[in-house]
């Protein structure tokens, strides 16, 4: 295989002309023939037993060309990329120049290349001081959530109040006719949850056990069912049971029951410590986001369209994987949103461009500041990864791709820390 590289008229784009030896192409044709021989039914031969030359004569000598090209083009393309040291960032546009038995296979691949970055100001970036304090109300809210989680539900004889759970039968009517999905029996409705049509829960308040009542509401104009949207409805409601949550007392016994602490004070101190750590992480992420955003705004770069498409591909694949955990497919999700795949991908474009710019900016800073990942850095990360995946560091160390991935991550982390250390923290401006 040989490869010639030439620039195209477009910035950050090259054309590779790849030549594959005739013998290698011939071997690919033979391989494809043996793979597909069983499918050919030619008069005078048992099915799948016709020689290659007969199959080519019967169907035409080009019968195996396309599959033979597909058999070897991918590998030869990768070899050409490696040989030419071109940093490809998009999918290739392939065009066949010569594909003839007995001759060298020649094809071209036009590819987008990693763009050059012209860094602007990246040292001494001003960032507004970020400060988050843990208030007593934050601790109280956490305790309240713990109370809710450890509450018990008891039946009561008093009328329905906000926050109660009412066990009801209901049936809905529009213009005097019952509608589909508007009926249920022994339904547990938490009053104040906002899970029913606006106004419904408010009218249940005050009802007593075994009381029946007509509740009049109006479906929202944007209601998902077009048959009901914006229409007045009447629900016939009967209350069977009324329940309320009984919260545990906030005392030392509560602390013992819900945590490893013996006193409420110790539990509160623990909550405060956790919230302070969360605030530290939040502050760190916001500072990082601010300096990286400033660097990308100050730099100059021409991002190829192909690079953006690949980034969007990765984002959509990630989204598809997350949806699969919920038993959803992309087609179903798009149908729910009433969007085409093209519209869906377009929405990801700004996010993809930001991600690419951030990555390129950090790479440029790593290069400009000669930031390195030492062997000790990589070893430490390998040991962390090994612990998480139940492997040994020695096993992971044999994988060059893992080591390169960790090395880049370390360099980027050091580049971000460099930006933070060299930033100027200023007082927050009044808006």
Helix-strand blueprint:
Layout: E1 2-7, E2 13-20, H1 22-36, H2 52-59, H3 65-84, E3 93-98, E4 105-112, E5 126-128, H4 136-149, E6 152-156, E7 165-174, E8 177-190, H5 200-204, E9 212-218, E10 232-246, H6 252-258, H7 264-298, H8 305-324, H9 330-337, H10 341-368, H11 375-389, H12 393-397, H13 400-421, E11 424-426
Parallel strand pairs: 5-11
Antiparallel strand pairs: 1-2, 2-4, 3-4, 6-10, 7-8, 7-10, 9-10
Helix pairs in contact: 1-3, 4-7, 6-7, 7-10, 7-13, 8-10, 10-13, 11-13
Give a short summary of the structure:
By secondary structure, the protein is an alpha+beta fold. Helices cover 47% and strands 20% of the residues. Helix 4 (136-149) crosses helix 7, helix 7 crosses helix 10 (341-368) and helix 11 (375-389) crosses helix 13.
Structure description:
This protein has 431 residues and is of the alpha+beta class. The protein folds into three domains: 2-112, Trigger factor ribosome-binding domain (Alpha-Beta Plaits, 2-Layer Sandwich); 152-246, Roll (Chitinase A, domain 3); 264-426, Trigger factor, C-terminal domain (Trigger factor, domain 2, Orthogonal Bundle). Helix content is 47%, strand content 20%. The protein has 13 helices and eleven strands. The strands form three sheets. Strands 6, 7, 8, 9 and 10 form a five-stranded antiparallel beta sheet that branches. Helix 7 (264-298) packs across helix 10 (341-368) and helix 11 (375-389) crosses helix 13. It is extended and about 95 Å long. The two termini are 64 Å apart. The mean pLDDT is 93.
Could you name the key traits of this structure?
47% helix, alpha+beta, Chitinase A, domain 3, 11 strands, Trigger factor, domain 2, five-stranded antiparallel β-sheet, four-stranded antiparallel β-sheet, 431 residues, 13 helices
